[in-house]
Amino acid sequence: MQFIRQCFGMSKKVPQRIVDPHHHFYTPSVEAGPGGHSGFLRKLGAPDYPPEDYVKDKAALNIVKSVHVEALPDDGVAEAAWVASLIKEGRAPTVKAIVGKVDLAAPDAAQKLEALVKTSDLVRGVRYIIDYDGPFGEDNGTHPEVSRHGKDYLRGPEASDFERGFALLKKHGLSYDLQCAPAQLPAAAALLARHPDIPVVLDHAGKVRKLDGSEGDAAKIEAWRVGVTALAKLPHVRVKLSMLGFLVPGWTDDAAKEEIVVGLVKELLGLFGPSRCMFASNWHGSGASSNADYCDECQPTMTELYERFQGWCDGPLGLDAEAQALVFAGTAEAFYRI
After folding, report:
1. What backbone phi and psi angles, to 5 degrees, belong to 23?
2. Which of 73, 81, 161, 309 is 20 to 30 A distant from 51 in Cα terms?
C-alpha cells in the first residue's frame, strides 16, 4: 500500500533533460539495404523502424542526445556506416554515439574492429549479444542472436576466443555493452575484472526474466542478485535501467508488478549508485518490443515510460535533483563521452 500511495495520482512529469543511451533503427524490408538488416532481422519478422519514427516517438520528450545501439545486423560495419550516414543527412539529429556489432570470438574480430572504428568518429563501443541459458527455442533466456552459433561465450569452450577479442577493445578506446543471461553474470564479472581499462555497461538491468510475484521469483532474483552484486564491485561497470517489461511482464498495467520492478531498480541504484546507472528507452517501434521484448502485449509510449521513471525518482526511489540529472543524462554522457 505504501508504494501505491507514493505512485498513485502522481502528476505526469517527464525528466527535464534526457540523454537516451539505448535505441535502434532498422529497415529489414529493404532488400540488401545499407543497414544490413534484410537477412536475420527480416526472418524474425521485425517491421521497419527508421530514424524519422524515433523523432516522432520522442517528440514530447527533451531528448538532447542519444546513442544508437546495434540492432542484430548481418554486417555490423555496414550498419554503423549506415547510421553515420543518417546522422550526416540530418535524419538522426539526436544521435551522438554509435555502438556497433562485432563478434569478438570470431577469427576476424581484429579486422572487423579496425573497420568499425573507421566508419565514424562517433563509434564509441561494441555490443555483441551473448545471452546463453540453454538451447535456443526452449523456455529460457537464450537470445535469438545466439541461435546463429549456439555457443556460450562466457562459460563455454569459446570463452578464451571471446576474451581475446574483448581485450582488443582497449586498443581502440571502445566500451562494451554487456547483454547476457543472469546465470552468466558471475562469469562476466570474472572476465571484466581482468580488464579494468575497458568500460562496460550492463544492458537491460541484468535481464532477470519473467518475474510475476510467485514463489518461483525468489530463486531467479537471488541468481540475478549474485551476478549484479559481483559486477557492482567493479568500478568500471555501469548499468542500464531499461526493457523492464522483460523482467516483469505487465508492470505498466499492474501496480503490484510495478512495485516489483521498482524494487529491482532500487536495488541496482543501491549497488551501483546514480553515477553508474542510466535510464534508457530501448526504443524501436512499440511499447511491447521496447519495454518487454514481447514478453507482454502492453503498449506504453516512450513518453509514458519516462513519466513512470520520473514518478519513481520523485516517489519511492527518493532521488534528489542531482541524482536525477545523472540517471537521466549525466551517467550516459560520461560513459559514452558525448
Report:
1. -155, 175
2. 309
